[in-house]
Amino acid sequence: MKNDTDLASAARRRFLNGIGLAVTATGAVAGAGALGLAGIASAKTDAARPGGSFPTEKYDWNKHRWGFGVDVNKCIGCLRCVEACKAENHVPRNAHQFRTWVERYVHIEGEEAMRVDSHQDPVNIKASGSEAQYRFADRYKGAKVDKAFFLPKLCNQCSNPACVQVCPVGATYKTVDGVVLVDDTRCIGCRYCVQACPYGARYFDEKRGVPDKCTWCYHRITKGLQPACVEACPTGSRVFGDMLDRQSPISLFVRNNHVQVLKPESGNSPNVFYLGLDKEVS
Amino acid sequence: MEPLIHFAPYTGWVFPNETVFEWTVLLAVYPYLTGLVAGAFTVSSLYQVFKFERLKPVAHLALLTSLACMLFVPLPLLLHLGHPERAFNAMITPHLTSAMAMFGFFATFYVVLLMLEIWFAYRPYIVEQAQTRKDLLGKVYQLLTLGSYDVSERSLEHDRKWVFWLAVAGIPGAHGLHGYVGFLFGSLKSREWWSSDLMPVIFLFSAIISGVSLLIVLYVISCWLRKIPVDLACLKGLAYTVWAFIMVALVLEGLEFANIVYKGREGVEMIMQYVEGPLLVPYFVLQFAVGAIFPMLLLSYMIWRGTTGTPLITGVTLSACLVLFSVFMMRWNVVIGGQEISKTGKGLLSYHLPFLGQEGALMAIILCLAPFVVLLGMIRLFPPWEDHGTGAVPAAA
User: Fold this and answer.
1) What is this model's ipTM?
2) What pTM value is reported for the model?
3) Which domain does B203 fall in, by range?
4) Across the interface, which of A116, A187, A200 has its CB nearest the CB of B17?
């Protein structure tokens, strides 16, 4: 009996070991494969080399042309992007200064115009309980909603940026790889750029005495990382990549969809491309 | 402690970053002072270049007023900058596509021009004082002669030519400076309330009426303080100038508003809601009715009736005070009004003017009054009065 038991036990052990090995091996292979695949996938938007301090060594801005896409239909208004941006870029934790924000458009049956609000709205701030945390209050509960959507916004990194045009000292400038940056050490703090931006994308940081704006996380993208908001978005509403790479997510997004930009009449030629824009959006 | 973020209440839909007013009352004071500079210089030029002899009693006062105001023009900007210590970056490494980049150059050119013109206009007086006074002020006048004591007829003729040509150059200089301030606002396409080709011209004409009105007030006060009769011909000359230019200014402003309404571009509904609501009193009542139309009617009446004596002095001074107020309201309605209409075209914000603080009402009042303290000092140093025996250079023949 004992021998039978020992034999059965040994067989069981071998079987389990085999399964364990198989699982481990499969896991290892799958993991390696996934990592590899992830590597390939992210390589589409990768910069020249990962790591290194900013400005990234050997990063060649002549080899990239960054672009940003927003699929309005996918945004659920969770505001992870706003939280991630505030944390990543040390944006003041208040309800009046944002590098990126999300707008909510709601059309209620029988009403002529759409209602628009954002997380900075006092009602939404009350719902979140703090100016440092963001959420959309359930303020339309019970209303007969005809149509509603969320719309993320950020700096459009325009090709003809009005903010760059008006800066009296050239502190705000357009990089070759397509991002508008501010040189904090040159800026005189006149705020002409804040006035000139038709999108309201800039705010003035009173503590530092200079304006601030979205840079598409330039410190990250030049190291091969995604902008913080793109990484935090759980639905893939935000798309980022290199327009010079035909297979990058942004190239595919722009090529495979009928995209639009905000305020095209401004002549600024924005570089954030929207899918699913509504006529009500300004 | 004062909060760092001055959050502005709003109605409707405004962009989150718009809820902080970035350009405050100081940015209204800046074009106001620049306008006074240009307007005062206009009076000086009318005498020096266009030979309006009846303006002779205020010609030199106009020059000094222009310089006193000009010295304070950069101050509201410097107080407003996030990094005033870097202000000269705009001149050392100007970014030439920016309308603002030229300010330093225009302002410097104009200050130098004014100083030169005043020096040439007062050279005989400076020389006389340098030679007669033995006190500390005498030393100051000696320095101001710059070593030139020649007051021969040939030399004075030379001075007159300089004054004439500097006054000629100053006309485009002063008016260019102010038209340029209008361009700073008019060239911005982000705000419908600002974005207008007429903006520089509107600024210019409102500048002229404000500067001439300021001289009316200063002249009447100076006569009252010096206990001398007001030269009615001079006062009438100034009143005619205000009367003529106020009509142009009104027509231009009316055209500007009609353009916005008639074109009816996106966001016009919000603009209409704004002008019929929060802007009704500051724009239609204070700026137009009280500050422009009433003075124009009053001046028209006095010109028609041939009013003279004390009623003329009272009427013209009252009109001038109202015009000065109206032009400040115009600056306010442009600078603050523009920001009160959201860039979304779907919301309105309201600006709260704090009394204290670096960009408060008190600072604005101090900045508006400070030039006159300096002017008082200048008048002591360079008396602009004809009866003072200053020997100042008269207009070139």
Assistant:
1) 0.91
2) 0.87
3) 192-351
4) A200
